[in-house]
Design a protein that fits this description.
Layout lengths: L6 E4 L2 H5 L2 E3 L1 E3 L5 E3 L4 E5 L3 E2 L9 E7 L5 E9 L3 E4 L2 E4 H5 L6 H10 L3 E4 L3 E3 L7 E9 L5 E9 L10 H4 L3 H22 L1 H4 L10 H7 L11 H16 L4 H9 L6 E5 L5 H4 L11 E6 L5 H14 L5 E6 L42
Parallel strand pairs: 16-17
Antiparallel strand pairs: 1-14, 2-5, 3-4, 4-14, 5-13, 6-13, 7-12, 7-14, 8-11, 8-13, 9-10, 15-16
């Protein structure tokens, strides 16, 4: 047999969705999750190695099963992608993915094709499975919420055994199975090393690492205030924000990361004398500034913005956050071109779920 090199087939979400799933749901990360109790089956489309007489090596996956649940793995390989059924040539994929074909008839195909069956394991040597295509049948029996994830197929499965002279590779099944233990450990270590860059990528790093990244960049983070997606968005902009810390640009940028509505920043020291004499509307000292947001009041958002603005505002300055409601009062933050509104008297009724507000009044006929 020719040396086809080391390949890894990862069964991603799109491939899993193309299979016949009975009682399984495909999650976004490529995991299979059961729904309810009973027998859950997943018939997957054939893996194509693009090489005749390919010797499939190893199947590995991670599963979270209940104490009374059982995982059964069935597979077979073949150089032919079709079979004869009822006098007609049928594609194996079409046969296995046909929900009208009884499972017993599909099981008979696996048996006649020289397939293998293993129960209660997460790592299987595909010894003797030779052919261009490989078909998998995963079955979980039990109740509760079970999960199968990180499903991989290796070709070949044992790196160590292939390094021995040919005389040791001939008719030596025990040595191959023994070395496969250490070969599997080596492959898992190598995959962890290959995935190290993902741990340092803000988009793919685990959620638990995000607060540490924030500390590296000099950010203070309260994990209870921000979701993981908001943290990732903030961390992407953190280097530029820290470089321009203490500027109006940094304050406006950090606010717009969390606000879709228009944002206005008014610095008191830049106002004309007549506007500064209008009380404490925009602060009391030359260092004060006001962040106005064109939307309804959101206390949680206000707390998050205050937490971040305090890290990027200039020294000695004080910030006030104001939400510009859809229609403000004349003694508050009201601007004709932003949130001002001229109301017209219109008839109404109080029996349609309406309530008296500051903009509603009763008038006698």
């Amino acid at each position: 047999m020719a040396d086809y090199g080391i390949r890894t087939y990862r069964l991603s979400a799109p491939r899993l969705k193309r299979g016949l799933l009975e009682g399984f749901t495909v999650l976004e990360d490529g995991a299979l999750q059961t729904q309810g109790g009973g027998v859950h089956s997943a018939f997957l489309t054939g893996l194509d190695s693009a090489q005749a007489d390919c010797q499939w090596g190893r199947l590995s996956l991670r599963c979270r099963l209940g104490a009374e649940s059982m995982l059964t793995i069935r597979c077979f390989a073949s150089d032919q992608d079709s079979v004869v059924r009822g006098g007609e040539v049928v594609q194996i994929d079409d046969f296995l993915l046909d929900p009208s074909v009884p499972p017993r008839e599909k099981e008979r195909l696996f048996t006649l094709a020289g397939g293998m069956e293993r129960s209660g394991v997460q790592d299987v040597l595909l010894s003797g499975q030779t052919g261009r295509w490989l078909w998998l049948w995963l079955e979980v029996t039990g109740a509760g919420e079970e999960t199968l994830e990180n499903i991989r197929v290796y070709v070949p499965g044992d790196h160590f055994f292939r390094t021995f002279p040919q005389v040791y590779q001939t008719d030596n099944d025990f040595l191959q199975r023994y070395l496969s233990i250490f070969s599997a450990m080596y492959q898992e270590f190598q995959e962890e090393i290959n995935d190290l860059p993902k741990l340092l990528d803000v988009d793919t790093a685990p959620e638990a690492l995000l607060p540490m990244f924030a500390r590296w960049l000099g950010l203070e983070i309260d994990e209870g205030l921000f979701s993981s997606q908001e943290l990732r968005r903030l961390l992407k902009q953190a280097p530029e924000l820290m470089a321009r810390k203490g500027t109006k640009w940094a304050v406006e940028k950090v606010v717009k990361l969390f606000v879709e509505e228009p944002v206005y920043i008014v610095e008191r020291n830049l106002l004309t004398a007549d506007k500064r004499d209008g009380g404490d509307l925009y602060g009391a000292t030359p260092y004060d500034f006001t962040v106005m947001i064109g939307g309804r009041m959101d206390e949680k958002l206000r707390l998050r913005l205050k937490f971040l603005i305090d890290q990027f505002r200039p020294a000695r300055s004080r910030c006030r956050i104001v939400f510009l409601e859809e229609c403000g009062g004349l003694d508050a933050f009201t601007y004709l071109d932003i949130n001002g509104e001229v109301l017209q008297n219109a008839p109404g009724s109080l029996d349609d779920g309406k309530a008296l507000t500051g903009m509603t009044y009763l008038q006698s006929p």
